[in-house]
Fold this protein.
Amino acid sequence: MPTADRLAVQILRCHRCGTLDAGPRLLCPKCHAAALEAQEVDGAGTLLSWTVIRRAPARLKSLVPYAVCVVDLDAGVRVTGRLQSFEGDFAPGARVRCVAREGAVAIFSTEA
Ligand SMILES: [Zn+2]
């Protein structure tokens, strides 16, 4: 469950088959039912990979440089988000947690 030091991440769950998906999408990727509903899951997970963006589209230029990351949430779904900081000593496999949300974007930080 989310705690004071980590936030939930919003994903999609299929009403028919229970599949979790990062979305956004209209149909379940497994059973193709139009039965997806938003659900929040715990924001703890494992960092799979990241890339640093140094040339961004106009609407994101104020964030440059920033790191887009892929996280396998403990809830069993793979999501993309941003790393709060990409300085420091961490590697794929590092434990991360969601510490902020900007609209639909989850911001992750490595666990201390
Ligand atoms: Zn389904």
